[in-house]
Amino acid sequence: AGELPNSFIKRRLGVAPGQTSQKHKYFFILLDHLDSNVPCYLFLCLCSNLSVFHAVIYSLVTVLIHFFVNYLLYLAKIRVNPL
């Protein structure tokens, strides 16, 4: 469900599935990394005693880890692009 708004926006801009908009490239790269973990952390806020502050921090840390692992895979020539 978290990826639906991202996909909707991309389709309206004419971006093909699996591609990134060149006009707003970095925004969509960040959105692609955030779109699945933010709803998960918000769900945890509702179902546990996780605060919204901690959910935001965990989301940012998760995105940083995602970027780091992607870059390592790029350096190992397993991934084609670093982001």
Molecular structure report:
This protein has 83 residues and is mainly α. The chain is built from four helices and no strands. The chain has helices at residues 4-12, 25-34, 37-47, 52-75. Helix 3 runs antiparallel to helix 4 (52-75). The longest helix is centred in the last third of the chain and has 24 residues, at 52-75. The radius of gyration is 14 Å and the shape is flat. The model has no long low-confidence stretch (mean pLDDT 85).
Please summarize what this structure is:
Helix content is 65%, strand content 0%. By secondary structure, the protein is mostly helical.
Unreliable spans are none
How much of the sequence lies in strands comes to under 5%
Question: What's the total count of β strands?
Answer: 0
Q: If you compute it from the alpha carbons, what radius of gyration comes out, rounded to the nearest whole angstrom?
A: 14 Å
Averaged pLDDT, please? 85
Major sheet summary line:
none
Structural class of the secondary structure composition? mainly alpha
Elements, N to C (H/E): HHHH
Helix content: 55-70%
Count of helical regions: 4
Characteristics of this structure?
mainly alpha, 4 helices, 83 residues
